[in-house]
Amino acid sequence: MRCKTTWRLRAAGTGSGAGGGRRLGWRWGSPWRRLVPAAGGSFGSPRAAAPPGRGTRPEILPAESRSLPRGCVRLMEETAAGRGQPRQRAARPRGSRGRGTAARRGSTARGDATDGHPTDGAPRAVVPRARAESTPVPRTLSARSRATGGLRLREVLSQLSLGRQDVSEASGLVNHVVSHLIQAVRGRDGSFSSISRLGAGSYYEHVKISEPNEFDIMLVMPVTRLQLDECDGTGAYYYLSFKRSPKEKYMNKFLDEDGKLSADKMLQELRRIIKEEVKHIKIDVEVTVKRKKPGSPAITLQIKKPPAEISVDIILALEVQQSWPPSTQDGLNIECWLGRKVRREFRHKPIYLVAKQNKKEKLLRGNTWRLSFSHIEKAMLNNHGSIKTCCESNGVKCCRKDCLKLLKYLLERLKMKHAKELEKFCSYHVKTAFFHSCVTWPSDTDWQYENLEHCFQKYLEYFLRCLQDSQLPHFFIPQYNLLSLDDKASNDFLSRQINYQLNNGFPVFHQA
């Protein structure tokens, strides 16, 4: 609160007249932030009126012996403890900051679904509550904080950073292979002549850890006149059909008997072309197409150049230039973090639909498509500060991405130890919790670089609350819950494992 107030403090039997008093002028939040009597005077006496003179060091009054408003006492105690320093004027945040955001950050969101696989009639999701205000580092950290801080998380991060030479070689190989395939696919019978490339996933979001051995490439295909019909209650999966006869006549061969656009037919055709073309890539490495995983939207290439082995997921995505579906209306609540203007710009971007099978369908026909927001997620991660210069060369560095990398690494290590129990979890759960945390703590000062241990702890505890409640709403589709009560045993298992690591200094980080 930044307001100016003048208090009239009265002491019985002092000043002029019964109950008289003298005015003590002070300003809540002023640069000196102290209540100070004149030299030789006592608080509430006629001599206590003058503020400290220029060049004099004011005394700090003992709060316990005075009858003051509670806020004044707290302010004096903070000052006496060395915390009453002048506040720095913050740089102008990006976009406009709406009122009432603290309430929205703790509000409920509707949802039902399971980990990547929605269910019908599941209970509505509730966003786990967290303190929405700026959270300063406590002067005395808890036992958990001491364990986290003692680990030296910076050393762990240094082990996760990618080597420049490795990145250069890996990205060069991937670019060569993918460029050849795109050119070959475009030159075929016209079905995919309009595709373009869009990098997605952790490598292009600059949060890849350990090795540059996995890449996600979206082959984007613009399609017009599409009708989207929800196929379940999650708001994430859709049947696609054409409102009128498609402009692209070659699309007719991908329609099923009900006139719906078949994801299976399109993927099979693209997969066939890619399998033929990898044989003609002129490069001194082995490139193969991995066997198809049931329900996966990706065509996975394996690039082998001993001792390295690189996996490239090629994902077919339809680009649709139309309004976002109603299920997304209450999602992407970034006004308090990135601003209203940025949210408005994001929602004017096209939507993408990937060929993903809805496993909860009674009859699997391979004609469902799932909404994808990879392009928005990448934009948010690469421009993540509430102030535009955050983490730029001329700006202040934050620890947001470092926290995300650490939790991704923690989940990765735990999955290596408990593959069966944790098979339902993936890095997208961690990333979704990260976006919600950025909204809960929107200011760059909440993620100061030097406070990594504290910031990682509060992000981790937010994720733990999601696991304990089995509630993690999709960031763009709030009614779509990425965790499910049906998988509560798995959620509780991961929660116990993370709690153990948190309370014992993360021994899993030290294990080979």
Structure notes:
- There is one protein chain.
- With 512 residues, the chain is an alpha+beta fold.
- It has 2 domains: 6-80, no CATH class; 143-509, Poly(a)-polymerase, middle domain, CATH 1.10.1410.40.
- Helix content is 31%, strand content 13%.
- The chain has 13 helices and 11 strands.
- The strands form 2 sheets. Strands 3, 4, 5, 6, 7, 8, 9, 10 and 11 form a 9-stranded mixed β-sheet that branches. A two-stranded antiparallel ribbon has the order 1-2.
- β8 (298-305) and β9 form a beta hairpin.
- The chain is globular and about 60 Å long.
- 34% of the residues are buried.
- The model is unreliable at 1-93, 96-124, 129-141 and 146-150 (pLDDT under 50).
Key words describing this protein structure:
single chain, disordered N terminus, 13 helices, alpha+beta, nine-stranded mixed beta sheet, 11 strands, two-stranded antiparallel sheet, Poly(a)-polymerase, middle domain, 512 residues
Number of helices: 13
CATH architecture term of the largest domain: Orthogonal Bundle
Tell me the β content. 5-15%
Which overall shape is indicated by the principal axes computed on the Cα atoms? Answer: globular
Instruction: Give the helix/strand class.
Output: alpha+beta
Averaging pLDDT over every residue, what do you get? Answer: 76
Question: Which percent bin holds the helix content?
Answer: 25-40%
Order of helices and strands: EEHHHHHEHEEEHEEEHEEHHHHH
- Overall structural domain count: 2
Q: Classify the fold: give the CATH topology of the largest domain.
A: Poly(a)-polymerase, middle domain
How many β-strands, per DSSP?
11
CATH structural class of the largest domain:
Mainly Alpha
Parts with pLDDT < 50 across at least 5 consecutive residues? 1-93, 96-124, 129-141, 146-150
Q: How far apart lie the N and C ends? A: 51 Å
Rg from C-alpha positions?
A: 29 Å
Please give the largest β-sheet: 9 strands, mixed
